[in-house]
Design a protein that fits this description.
The chain has 362 residues and is mainly α. The chain is built from 16 helices and 8 strands. The longest helix has 26 residues, at 169-194.
Length: 362
């Protein structure tokens, strides 16, 4: 893959915005228990059938609605390796530690695995088919997913994973290479078994989500992080690479160009701002206004947030209607977000510069 032309890439991308609801907002609107959504396919059908009209009624037509998807389990791949899932009554799914030692983790990954018949994959495959029958005209998603290599390492090893590079660097590299091989195999299985697509072959773009990479010191990235991101990217695309990784520090940002990313999603990253990102990498990025930020903001604050993010270099701004936002006050503020984003896009499309957008701040 050729290195993107970072001298021109960010300026060549038109400013954009995205606002949509999530399953968390549907849970609020319908009052369906979260545990029921995870373990009862009929509750999943009801969630989308009843929840989406309620969100549309409150928020109007400018809000995107989520397509039906099986209950989101980010630990699907690790579960097929043998880590047991835990479903609390009122929270997100969790899992048991898979490997208490690095040697156990390596042995776990070296064992042959039939992903489609392991763990809860068969249950969620059936869940997927139930959703497809309920929504035959929609593209149903499969939420029983994998994580990136560093997060997978943490899920298998927990806190011990952060000591492994120091205590046993060569075995850690073997562990990470096996993780990537397993993740690639799992994604290929999902493509083939769930989506009836070829198991192998290059895609026009591919993204990795891997928040735990941010927990590794930048001094370790060249040796213990970048090689394994590159392995996974190379398995799926020789073109566009994108990444979601939360809580990076400024010192991590130069590595994004080494990864040849064309888009970076920092999501919840309290140590960063659009200005800091712009000053430390040329990779185009989006900036997110989170649900937990809205209560302390007025509608005007929300507009100023959009203008500041755009003025400081964000290629796009995003916001999701999540838990705690099924109310009229939040709807007003989300529409202020949309109004400001549309004004920003119009001004930039008509030739305004980023500094001009800063003048919109009131």
């Amino acid at each position: 893959m050729d290195q993107p032309d970072y001298a021109a890439l960010r300026s060549s991308i038109p400013f954009s915005y995205h606002v949509s609801a999530t399953y968390l907002a549907l849970l609020d609107a319908t009052r369906i228990p979260i545990k029921a959504m995870f373990l009862e396919p009929e509750a999943g059908v009801e969630l989308y059938r009843r929840g989406r009209p309620l969100i549309r009624e409150l928020y109007g037509e400018k809000i995107g609605l989520p397509a039906p998807i099986t209950a989101p389990v980010s630990y699907g791949h690790v579960n097929t390796l043998g880590a047991e899932l835990i479903f609390p009554d009122d929270g997100e799914v969790n899992l048991e530690t898979g490997a208490s030692t690095l040697a156990e983790g390596i042995a776990m990954l070296e064992r042959p695995v039939d992903f489609a018949r392991s763990g809860m994959f068969p249950f969620y495959r059936d869940y997927f088919q139930i959703l497809r029958r309920a929504f035959p005209d929609e593209a149903v998603g499969f939420g029983f997913k994998s994580e990136g290599p560093m997060t997978t390492g943490y899920l298998l090893r927990r806190d011990g994973f952060f000591f492994d590079p120091y205590d046993n660097p060569e075995e850690t590299k073997k562990f990470l290479a096996l993780i990537v091989r397993s993740v690639v195999g799992y994604i290929q299985c999902v493509n083939q078994v769930i989506y009836d697509k070829p198991a192998t072959g290059k895609l026009p773009s591919f993204g990795i989500a891997d928040d735990v990479g941010a927990m590794f010191n930048p001094d370790l990235w060249d040796e213990f992080v970048l090689p394994y991101y590159n392995l996974e990217f190379d398995a799926f695309t020789d073109r566009q690479r994108t990444m979601h990784i939360e809580d990076l520090r400024p010192a991590h940002l130069p590595f994004l160009e080494k990864l040849r990313l064309v888009n970076y999603d920092p999501s919840v990253s309290p140590r960063l701002t659009p200005k800091i990102i712009s000053e430390n990498t040329r990779v185009p990025f989006q900036w997110r206004l989170c649900n937990f930020q809205y209560p302390a903001m007025s509608a005007n604050d929300v507009k100023n947030w959009v203008f500041r993010a755009a003025a400081d270099g964000a290629s796009s701004v995003v916001s999701y209607v999540c838990q705690g936002m099924y109310n009229a006050e939040s709807a007003v503020k989300v529409h202020a977000f949309i109004e400001a984003a549309e004004a920003t896009r119009k001004a930039l499309d008509q030739g305004a510069g980023r500094a001009d957008i800063a003048r919109f701040i009131a």
